[in-house]
Every structure is written in structure tokens, then in C-alpha cells.
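Quick start: read one record
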Amino acid sequence: MGSNVSSIDSTQDELNNRSLKPKLEDIPEACVAIVLSYFDPPEICKLARINRTFHAASSADFIWEPELPSNYRYILEELLGLNVAGMRKTDIFAKLSRPNSFDGGTKEIWIHKNNGGVCLSICSKGMTITGIDDRRYWNYIPTEESRFQTVAYLQQMWWLEVDGDLEFQFPAGIYSLFFRLQLGRVTKRLGRRVCNSDHVHGWDLKPVQFQLTTSNGQRAISRCYLDNVGTWVHHHVGDFVVEDPTAVTKLKFSLTQIDCTHTKGGLCVDSVLVCPISLAKELRSFNSLIVTK
């Protein structure tokens, strides 16, 4: 009888000791929030699934404030027409980490989920293309391979000129500008991607020229021969530096091949991408892999 009572008592003591051991949910929410502030946004989102305390702590404004670009108010209020008053920083980050269209749907803006870098894209309809109104030369064709669902397709022309501009209040940093181009028209056949290169010609005779200028006097020029039949490639135009994050930077960019000694055709013009130079290095590496294959 005595041994049974002793056994029951020891079991009860063991249960009591277990209940006294600290658990994750016992950590104060403020402490969890401080720990989360040392992680990147994707990691914070993963940790928020651990339990209710982590989930609640992950919404703290001081965690997300450093992850937002310095111009987030300008983006939300000036470009997207939203009121930031009362919005939680986590909701702002979630909103900006998705593509947001503006300027009649011809431009999109988003921030990179890992580092909050600001990225912008301008579609072909947001640029000035010589001869675009004459269907003998150019057509807008639908495609699922563009974030804008449409690209400009050049059938044949002597004079190629695509111009664009952008006014934007960039955070301080170094940025790169790319043209996203492809030779050949891609279609789907029996569920497979097929490239029609019938109109592709003239790009091996003379290089195309890319140009970038800024309102504060920066300029970049690059040239290359186009040979990426059936493959989308981001062609690097140049880089520019933003020192004053409160000033509006004006960009002008162009793609030309105006040697009228020969015609050229079969070119798809999708968009122009502007992104922080840290992300541009990833694009260049990806393009190098495509060329190598």
C-alpha cells in the first residue's frame, strides 16, 4: 500500500516538474519580436507559423520598418493613390512585395522580398516605338510569357527605334536598367513551347544600340548583336547612381538599330526593367547561363 502511494506521488511530482519547464509559448511576445527582427522577411514568415506568440510578434512595426524602402510613402500615396495612415508596416510590406500597376497599367512596381529593393518594369505599350501604328511593321501580340500579357512584335523594318522615359523618386543606391527582348515568335503547340523564327533576320549584320541618360547628367551606352532566338534575355543598358532619395530622378532610355542598309525583323520587345544593382548581378549570371547552354 505504501509503495503504491509513493509511486503515485513520484509520478505527480514528475508531471508537476514537466509543467514548470519553459516552453516556446511562454517566451514574452516582445522578446520574440526582438529575435525576429534579426531575420529576413521570408524567414520571419516561416517563424510566424510556429505558434500564436510568434505569429502575433511577427506583426510588430519595428520589425518591418527597416525592411521597407525609404520611399514607401511616395510609392503608396503618389503612384498608387493609397492612404498609409493606419496601415501596419507588415501590411505595407505585403502590398509592395506584389506587383502593383500604375500609369494606366503600362508600368509595375514591387519590392524584392529578401532585401526590400525597389524594382520597376515598363511595358512595350508604355514606350514610343517608331511605326507601331502600321501593322505592316509592328503588331502587339498576346503572350503568357510577359508580366503585361502583351509584347510588341516587329515583322520587318528598316529603322528600329524604341524610346521610353520614367520619373521616379528612387531610394539612394545604384540601379541597373535592362531591355527584355527575344528573337522569334513563341506559340503553344500540343502544350509545348514552339518558336517561329520565320521573320528573324538582319540582327547579325549590325549591332543594336542601347542608351540610358538621367536628369543629373549620367549616361550609358552599350551595343550588342542579337542572337537569342526563342529565349528571353535581359540586355543590360547601363547603371546609374541615386544620391538624393528625396529628389525625383528622370530617366530616358532607348533601343535603336537605324542602319538603313538592311531590314531586320522577328523581334519581340517585352519591357524595360529597373532594379538595384545587387539584383542585376543575378540577371547577368542567368543570361550567361542561357548563352552557354
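Helices lie at 2-20, 29-36, 41-47, 52-57, 61-64, 72-79, 89-96, 277-292.
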